[in-house]
Specification:
154 residues, 5-stranded mixed beta sheet, two-stranded parallel ribbon, 25% strand
């Protein structure tokens, strides 16, 4: 079972719809068009289209599996007392004084450009169930980080 936000669930449903209703028919058209050109054993376009179809079908199956196991979290039932999934955490790196803000998200919603880190990441694991004001040590590939939690929001 995978917990996610309503926004993440809706985005995944839209991606799946796009794959099934737009991209897959385009690939099927490309396959039939390449098949009409004759000898399939030396037809590069046909083989490329078949590979693309296999890739798309794999992505569709993956997204269907994620959606089948997804559970949308009711944000109104969450509290901002401690860090948990969908919490927005403002923290300070104690070594250099740098301020960071991350939202703890499901692995499928994680996107560092949007400030969303996976709940399975080392930083999120160290922050889970901690409160504002707590100091946390995190082992990351670059070494140890010491972070102070400044605030928690939903």
């Amino acid at each position: 079972m995978e917990y996610m936000s309503q926004e993440g669930y809706d985005k995944l449903v839209a991606e799946l719809h796009q794959l099934e209703s737009v991209e897959l028919p385009m690939v099927r058209d490309a396959i039939s068009e390449a098949r009409d050109k004759g000898d399939l054993s030396e037809n590069f376009e046909y083989h490329a289209a078949k590979r693309e179809q296999a890739r798309l079908l794999s992505r569709i199956r993956f997204k269907q599996k994620v959606l089948a196991n997804a559970r949308v979290i009711d944000v109104s039932r969450l509290s901002a007392d401690s860090v948990q999934l969908l919490s927005r955490v403002e923290m300070t790196n104690m070594a250099n004084g740098a301020h960071m803000t991350y939202t703890i998200a499901s692995p499928n919603e994680a996107n560092i450009r949007e400030g969303k880190i996976s709940i399975k990441s080392p930083i999120a694991q160290a922050l889970l169930n901690k409160r504002a004001g707590d100091v946390v040590e995190v082992c990351v590939p670059a070494g140890k980080l010491t972070l102070r939690i400044d605030s928690i929001q939903l």
